[in-house]
Amino acid sequence: MTGLAAYNASNITVLAAQNNLDSYIQTFMSKPVTDVEKLRKNQNSMRTKMELLVMKTQADFCRALESLESDGSFRVDRWSRQEGGGGVTCVLQDGQVFEKAGVNVSVVTGTLPPGAVQQMRARGKKMDQDSVPFFAAGVSAVIHPRNPMIPTIHFNYRYFEVENQDGSTKWWFGGGTDLTPYYLDDEDARHFHKALKAACDKHDPSYYATFKEWCDNYFNIVHRDERRGVGGIFFDDLDTPNQNEAFQFVTSCAEAVIPSYIPLVKKHKDDGYGYRERQWQLLRRGRYVEFNLIYDRGTKFGLYTPGARYESILMSLPLNAKWEYMHEPEAGSKESQLLEVLRNPRDWLADARA
């Protein structure tokens, strides 16, 4: 990994944090949220490992996108949160390739208010008090390309800790990567799912099928009876088999983002399209907005958190979208073919396994 960082499979150690942390953080889009000296002193802490991972993931993905963009670069917005921690939001708008691309890192601490605690209890988390000290670190991205033939990608990988009254700590990881095309390309979907399956298979051969089904069920616009896209993987509350192995798995998933998506952008960025395709893209973006504002758990959790930074939370929304009353695509059209798959999720790797 270019000598900047390496991960030991048996004992995960960010070598950059041990040997040359200063040089390593120079590769990030911004300096870390946590003071560098604190990171250096706590290099074996999962908090430190996760912060370095999300900062590296953000930087690698932003630079991969910028390498394809002929008109524009990411605006880097480093912010702090009065209640504790902060983040780095990177946004590219009005580019030739990417109409809006956002890649956000947050590393926050504080106390969960009763509303957020109740939301977590509803997910089966046992909280023994109404206000819980917490730590959270994550990276999330949503990319809205200009060309309707390029799909949108979303990914999010995160780590969470809460502290009980007796001083004990509970921790878990969550995240996933999913693809939202405007026009169906079976080869694209297979490529995308194959990259995610390879990341899962490094750790547990049961992960891909389990997390693929979870993704199909989670990214479901219930009131439309449509999935948001062609799926991917999604998981939450991952606390097995142990902390280091769970971190290894999340690392593999984060490293799979670029090879799963960048080839699709290169393949389609110069494809031709017209007014009809653009209008369909705007309608599908409207569906994206509906899911994020009505169903997305991360969006709602962020809005519940004291000191929430709304610009970063709503970064996932597209620059342009459209809602048309009672719209239904023409039978047999390419648009209706996509809708059929969104209503009936497919096993994209069935042919490969056969």
UniProtKB/TrEMBL annotation:
Molecular function GO terms recorded: coproporphyrinogen oxidase activity
Top EC category: oxidoreductase
EC identifiers of the protein: 1.3.3.3
GO CC terms of this entry: cytoplasm
Domain of life: Eukaryota
Pathway: Porphyrin-containing compound metabolism; protoporphyrin-IX biosynthesis; protoporphyrinogen-IX from coproporphyrinogen-III (O2 route): step 1/1
GO biological process, any: protoporphyrinogen IX biosynthetic process
Keywords: Heme biosynthesis, Oxidoreductase, Porphyrin biosynthesis
Gene3D superfamilies xref list: Coproporphyrinogen III oxidase, aerobic
Assembly and interaction partners: Homodimer.
Family note: Belongs to the aerobic coproporphyrinogen-III oxidase family.
The protein's name: coproporphyrinogen oxidase
Species per Swiss-Prot/TrEMBL record: Harpegnathos saltator
